[in-house]
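Justification of computing resources. Each target in the renewal requires a structure prediction run like the one illustrated here; the chain below, 429 residues long, is used simply to show the kind of job we budget for.
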Amino acid sequence: MATKLIAPRTGEGVEELTVTNWIKEVGDQVGEMESILEIETDKVVTEFPSPVAGTLLRIDVPAGSIVKVGDSMGLVGEPGESTDETVQPAALEEKPAQTEKTEEVEVETSTQATTPADEKPVQKSAFLSPLVRKMLDEHQLDPDLIEGTGSGGRITKQDVETYLVNPKKVNQTVNEPKTVVKEKPVQSTQVVPSTSDIPGVLIPHTSTRKQIAARMVDSVHTSPHVLTVMEVDMTRVLAHRKANKDKYAADGVNLTLTAYFVAAIAKALSEHKIVNATWTDEGIFAYSDINIGMAVALGEGGLIVPVIKQVQNLSLKGIASQVNNLAERARNKKLKPDEVRDGTFTLTNHGTAGSLFAMPIINQPQLGILGTGAMQKRAIVITDENGNDSIAIRPMVYLSLVFDHRAIDGESGDNFLADVKKTLENWSD
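Resulting structure tokens:
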């Protein structure tokens, strides 16, 4: 008996997933627990394994489409096995007939997809996923004008995005049945702002970009953001790293500066519990564990924040190992959904591109985020124990702390950041 590929619940409150890619095609053999497709949730792309060995008989949800938890994504069984009694593709509905109106200008176009002579024409509108249908409605596009590259000629999200960049009509078969319909307006890629005549090109939002945008707007609407900046002398950290880098490497651990920042933040959070907390209407809930998220850039894919759990229990080597592992798997889209959840504070290194300091956005429902700028050698004034001043060149980094002013006052935020600075400047084993 054929087995349905059921969309899994990847976490509490998760009701929808995005099918990002089918690794196998219809007719391909698949082994038990062999990856068959990729799904995305919370910006994490996870490979979905087939629960049984067999042949991929049917794809119910094309790549780029959204599926609800518990719905069928496809079917695995024996070659030639009937699929009639299993779940059919979502959004199976007939395209409503259009009434001819003689008083309006009309053109003659086909409402049916081009099919081989021995097959019955199939209406494209009968195989649209909810996501694709929504995109077509938003842009007022006729599905018959778009060439589908999905299974069975279905239109995918990528097909719509491609069409928006380069609109063109599909070829019509000679002697194919025609229906007189009113031509729908097709959105041009040349977008003219309402305040000027400057033309431009529409770049459709990706699902990840929309998700990032929604969270950023939600965060600034939720928390009153306050920024405080300090600079830290990294001389002792660099000396310690130089002395221990090879020893760590022999154990397979790359000792990066990120590990030092995470360790210093964890120490400060243990002493300033009000920062390792979240706001509630009843009070401030202080977490027992220190779970630090670290932002990892994914290029045009935005960024993702894997979380190092229970940092208070980890040594510097343990932190460095976690940093290596999570960052590598984040860039290779191998993170698990629970590895981007339950953070209590966030670290972001905006200095990788040369930025000196910035104002990061708080990762809700956390109360703070710390940004590290680019390290620069700068001339600073050094005061010795006798009160004598001298000028020295030191490797300096700006630390930018953004905190939720509902829960954290300026003095509390400054004291927390000062302790992070103190730990880094006085680093010792």
